[in-house]
């Protein structure tokens, strides 16, 4: 490949022959590896921005679509961004800020309002650092990106949400209808059978809180920082946790159902929210390069981002025994390795999972299954209401799969531990009861 | 208090911690529950009918030996009325099969089952040693797997048996699910989760009664029943995707023992979500059929029994290269359909395979392979010519050069 560039660099102003040219602009020296091609710093940055801007454009169009919103095309778009303080979601903040600055510099209005929400789990997961440090870290973001609002939401706020069917988390013997304070919530988390379970449940709480923040602010969409690498990790981690059925809802962009278990109402009500992953076409290692080498001052040092560990591990994580790792961390380490040599394979995992079909409809009904496209909001709204959903993760219950599994495995296998009251899916069952 | 007691009988000392769920059991209860669980799988999936003649694919290794032992026990205990036969394949790898075939011969005596040994030379005109001489050591896991898969069916046909059971366990199934996710092959993912493979077009039905049994429990069962088996390992390294998936499974099991079964569960559920899969479009009506309805073979589950971990390069590198070429040729806009179909044809099946394979294939739609029969040998195949015949054609072309 390098010989090729040597042929083409006859024009003046080129660097010395020993240094390869950027394959994109053919003007500057190619110093960075982008999908196995050498490119210059400029072209690398442009590539990163372009991938993100393209997705943001798609979101903008989706939101304008009369089917999905309140139909106010002139109304300014409002998004919530979930910030884990890891490299991907931080880069997403940076890129969106760049996008806004660019539009303003052109004399246009800002294309959207952004509220950045960090769910702080340090109180329940002490090894994730103290909450004061989360607030301090957020101050760094506030200073760097004054246009955006940054909010810290303690994970214990999940107690105030009615999108969780709290009865599923309590044993039937318990008189309470939900944990009443942070202490009880913390005990509940401590009782979970493994590190994987705790990470899994924390992820669900975080998701509930981000969705709630999006709805409270009447925002049009929730943006998540998942890279293509993270989506591949998510695919395999959820598969390993028995949550394969819910993957089409988790990996794709578009509408996701939100269930409300209002104590006053007899029946839970279902509504919708749009979730997007604007960095879905980028690899994590590309964002690490971007955050360490291509931003000034470098995001990594300026915002105190840890790049070597899974966001759920927190910055203070010591080397632990392999048994204490969560499945998420195993996948993080695994894909960090695969991504090094086989980035396209990683990207292909996420693309492939995206093709799985969302099955709708209730159990037993003939012809009850149909594909749910991103824009199929009305069909979704009507048939979803009849469908039972998991009280913990809000994903559809897979009656057919549950029945078959019971048939195939028999009862001996199942731990006859105390079960909760509400209905939950197979994956949540595993996390709660091991 | 005395050392902990068995969680089931509560009288004997617990000597075994079940790998599957860490329940503490005594030896007797472990053996009983292991057998009961296999029995449950067999009855709930309606794998057999009374009087059925069934060939057990026997390699002399732990999985097939345990399968033979358990099937004999259950056949007698529950009056399945099965006519069980051991069917062994001799790949023609010098030194590799000698000991394991001796093991199978002893098993035949121990379990009072007839034994039929079929050689690759008989079936294909090639022993594996001759294959390796011709194409070198790389990539012959493919040959070994493809040939072995058909060998069992062809051997069964010779014996006029229409059902072959194999010793594939939960670890194998989980491994295949992760492998197919890694290589983006939804079609194979959905097929590999089925307990029964083969359809009306194939003369031989395949099933895996140990599909839900953990490999570690199979080892424990063999140990405590003092079964006579041979620790075989395929001497060739597995393809990169399988090796990678295998090491990942081991790590996941360490972190959460239920992960293996959870992957199987996810795989079965995802199989219903694959676009174009018949099972995802039928309503509740075909529910009963689903457990026993056979699907196409070619599941290539567990080609070899090697425990080699991640082998470098190979299939993974080939696929990476193919995907990059697709991306480059399509500019920034990657057409997903094309990517997948090209990958499927180019890199999934073989790495250093013979050039004629690629030349012969055109892009096919990704969603569903239409199954027909091989025009040469009649074996069920999604191509005009089945994998084995393709491989053989390449081998036969090479033979004169090598041997002259
Ligand atoms: Zn350039
Ligand atoms: Zn759930
Ligand atoms: Zn016992
Ligand atoms: Zn053929």
From TrEMBL, chain A:
Q: Where in the cell is it found?
A: Cytoplasm
Region (Disordered) residue ranges read 169-190, 363-391
Concerning Pfam families, the annotation shows: CTU2
GO terms (BP aspect): protein urmylation; tRNA wobble position uridine thiolation
Asked if tRNA processing is a keyword of the record, the answer is yes
A GO cellular component annotation here is: cytosol
Which pathway does this chain act in?
A: tRNA modification; 5-methoxycarbonylmethyl-2-thiouridine-tRNA biosynthesis
Read off the SUPFAM superfamilies from this record.
Answer: Adenine nucleotide alpha hydrolases-like
User: What keywords were assigned to this record?
Assistant: Cytoplasm, tRNA processing
GO function terms (MF aspect): nucleotidyltransferase activity; sulfurtransferase activity; tRNA binding
Q: What is the similarity comment for this entry?
A: Belongs to the CTU2/NCS2 family.
What role does this protein play? Plays a central role in 2-thiolation of mcm(5)S(2)U at tRNA wobble positions of tRNA(Lys), tRNA(Glu) and tRNA(Gln). May act by forming a heterodimer with NCS6 that ligates sulfur from thiocarboxylated URM1 onto the uridine of tRNAs at wobble position. Prior mcm(5) tRNA modification by the elongator complex is required for 2-thiolation. May also be involved in protein urmylation.
- What is the official name of this protein in its record? Cytoplasmic tRNA 2-thiolation protein 2
Provide the species name: Rhypophila decipiens
Quote the gene name from the UniProt entry: NCS2
Automatic annotation (TrEMBL), chain B:
Q: Which GO terms describe its biological process?
A: protein urmylation; tRNA wobble position uridine thiolation
Q: List the GO cellular component terms.
A: cytosolic tRNA wobble base thiouridylase complex; mitochondrion
Q: Name one Pfam family in it.
A: ATP_bind_3
Q: What is its EC number?
A: 2.7.7.-
Q: Which Gene3D superfamilies match?
A: HUPs
Could you tell me one molecular function GO term of this UniProt entry? tRNA binding
Please list the residue ranges annotated as the Cytoplasmic tRNA 2-thiolation protein 1 C-terminal domain.
372-403
Q: Which pathway is this protein assigned to?
A: tRNA modification; 5-methoxycarbonylmethyl-2-thiouridine-tRNA biosynthesis
Can the keyword Kinase be found in this entry's annotation?
A: no
InterPro entries attached to this UniProt entry: CTU1-like_ATP-bd, CTU1_C, Ncs6/Tuc1/Ctu1, Rossmann-like_a/b/a_fold, TilS/TtcA_N, tRNA_thiolation_TtcA_Ctu1, UPF0021_CS
Using the UniProt record, give the first listed, main subcellular location.
cytoplasm
Report the locations given in the UniProt record.
Cytoplasm
Which UniProt keyword terms apply here? Answer: ATP-binding, Cytoplasm, Nucleotide-binding, RNA-binding, Transferase, tRNA processing, tRNA-binding
Family assignment? Belongs to the TtcA family. CTU1/NCS6/ATPBD3 subfamily.
Q: What does this protein do?
A: Plays a central role in 2-thiolation of mcm(5)S(2)U at tRNA wobble positions of tRNA(Lys), tRNA(Glu) and tRNA(Gln). Directly binds tRNAs and probably acts by catalyzing adenylation of tRNAs, an intermediate required for 2-thiolation. It is unclear whether it acts as a sulfurtransferase that transfers sulfur from thiocarboxylated URM1 onto the uridine of tRNAs at wobble position. Prior mcm(5) tRNA modification by the elongator complex is required for 2-thiolation. May also be involved in protein urmylation.
What protein am I looking at?
Cytoplasmic tRNA 2-thiolation protein 1
Annotated source species = Rhypophila decipiens
State which gene encodes it: NCS6
